[in-house]
Amino acid sequence: MMAICDFSTNMNVSARSHRPWLDDLNLAQREAVQALEGPVLVLSGAGTGKTRVLTARLAELVATDTAKPWNILAVTFTNKAAREMKMRVANMVGPMAEQVWLGTFHALAARMLRRHADLVGLKPDFTILDVDDQTRLLKQMIEAKDLDAKRWPARMLGGVISRWKDRGLTPDKVGAAEAGDVANGRIREIYVDYQARLLALNAVDFGDLLLHVLTILQTHPDVLAKYQARITHVMVDEYQDTNVAQYLWLRLLTGTRHNLCCVGDDDQSIYGWRGAEVGNILKFESDFAGTKTVRLEENYRSTGHILAAASAVIAHNETRLGKTLFTAAEEGEKLRVNGYWDGADEARTVSSQIERMMEEGGDLSQIAVLVRAGFQTREFEERFIAIGLPYRVVGAKFYERAEIRDAIAYFRLIAQPADDLAFERIVNLPKRGLGAASLQAIHIQARASQKPLMAAAFDLIETDELRPAARTSLTEFIRDVKRWRDAVASMHHADLAKMVLDESGYTRMWQVDKLPDAEGRLENLTELVNAMQEFDSLAGFLEHIALVMDGDTEAENGEVTLMTLHAAKGLEFDTIFMPGWEEGIFPSQRTIDENGAVGLEEERRLAYVGITRARKLVHISYAGSRRIHGQWQSAIPSRFLQELPSDSIIEDNVQGMQAMGGGFGRATPAELADASHFGGTSGYGPGWRRMAARQQQASDPSFIAQDSGTVFAIGDRVFHQKFGMGNVINVDGDKLEIAFDRAGHKKVVSGFVSKP
């Protein structure tokens, strides 16, 4: 220990005379680095050098002897970020960096829990379960309590419990109102039993790592006192993404010193759906008295026009601390806003633009297409493959996603009953009570009879080889496949596909799944059925899929990156394309429906994140129509388009949009007749701005009270941003009953509709 202390002393003498990590910092960065005592909030805008500030501040703490390395706790959100920070600090101050407590929330909590496992009934060698293990354990709970596993799937209940743990709620803190009627009002009981079972197995899930440590620190003052004495300074990266449990943990560890430095950007808080609480950063100054707030606003990534656009959009959010990005770089090119006829036209044109960039010597690895929802990648992937454009998808490619492979397996089995691989994949998906023993019996019969699995299964249901319940399920499955095969000749293959997914229970399986990705999987299935519309037959579609799956292109000069906006956070590219800026897609209608104004603000933060990924050029586009649930529907340009500053954008290329009245795509004759109201053939620029303004007034909850007092009467033709065009058939005060052209009869509030 003395050798370490001697080394520290010698290093600090030299470091005080010259600390190179301070040399290239701007004034705000230097201020953040040298604010070493008390609570410090560093509001770091996109591209303002937060990683440099974090590492320099950590080095400054050690070099000035403000804190010993082993007295510093530095928390990140990813192992990659932790490794990068440790490497940078080691380059600055040498091997002393190894003594810093540096890691992710979960890694550091696991380290602490193993030291005190006995205080919560565990042994130090406890096992950390993954999601699959957690789900299997919860399935046992569901069966033991005789609950309907289809109505209350294990993944859904696991999601509820995980969210409680993210909020620091142990079973005894979950009240009746909190539990509601989940699992027939027995979810708290399941939570209690689940935790007991984990203890019996000497196991924890990821949520337990922080939850158990919180319990220890809150109920054992002696343990808390030891940590507070040892940890004198705490630093946190990406503070806007912390949840309640993480906040409570940090607050306990900082004790009365409050030497807590949090670096984050409230404008980039985009993970509310997985437990992040933007209020943690918004309330920092009130939670920690005497906070020093430093705003990092000089951007080193993007051009002036890009920053102006991002700042203008995010300024419409009310719940933010506020900052204005600027750059010493040139203004650069203006953002290009494009309107297209439909989604396919959008994908074709974007692909052509990328091809031109490649011909001009552009680096494909510096180009990204950022989409709001995963299903949007399908049209781009198919177009890229068709023209041989090298690309990569961050996350699974569309046709490689599990739900798409499952659906295609159903279609393959209908087209070819001898397809054993397809049979194996979906015979018990969703669950039909066909366990390993049943599947083994089918395989034995297939080998003995030299028949495909489907034919062998047909033979087995005529015998007593299977349990009665399994035999009944298998009989129903075989009967369904035969009925679907018989329908091939008489039904359109896209309609048949939808029927298969519905009648098999596969769609329902995802509808009842409450995990965050379930809705996205349903959207992907809808997009798959939509894609089938473009082919003459089921066989033609399956042949296309086979070619697509084998259609990887070789990257000669990098690859275009295709990813969601959520996945793009933290990355940067020279050029980005942002398609699908339409109401319902971006901002997401589901997010607004579920979270109201809070959800809308998070969607706007996504727009800010997307725009600021670009160094040089941004292309934003929307389509006049989309095929949704097999039907062409008119699309409304996103309200975010109206928020872009006119001085920083070029309304570049509208293709056939002018003829469609400024963006209504495949409009009805009545809509076309009145297209001049929305800009008409004079150009789509005024049109999309007026439509966005009308859309915001009609659908944003904050505008409802400002209704212009429009009077609606029976027979009026009206427009609703979600349900489309329709006719008023009944009026009751501000409540309207409307017969929509495609959505049927709906009751809506008058503030949500407008007269075209």
Compact overview of the structure:
By secondary structure, the protein is α/β, with parallel strands linked by helices.
Plain-language structure description:
The protein is an alpha/beta fold and 756 residues long. The protein folds into 5 domains: 2-114 and 218-298, P-loop containing nucleotide triphosphate hydrolases (Rossmann fold, 3-Layer(aba) Sandwich), CATH 3.40.50.300; 127-201, Arc Repressor Mutant, subunit A (Orthogonal Bundle); 335-390 and 553-689, Rossmann fold (3-Layer(aba) Sandwich); 400-537, PCRA, domain 4 (Orthogonal Bundle); 707-754, SH3 type barrels, CATH 2.30.30. It has 31 helices and 22 strands. The chain has a 7-stranded parallel beta sheet. The chain has a 6-stranded parallel beta sheet with strand order 3-2-6-7-1-8, with helices on both faces. The chain has a 5-stranded antiparallel beta sheet with strand order 21-20-19-18-22, with helices on one face. Strand 15 (625-628) and strand 16 (631-634) form a beta hairpin. Helix 5 (105-115) packs across helix 10 (206-219), helix 6 (131-144) crosses helix 9 (187-200) and helix 21 packs across helix 22. It starts with a helix and ends with a strand.
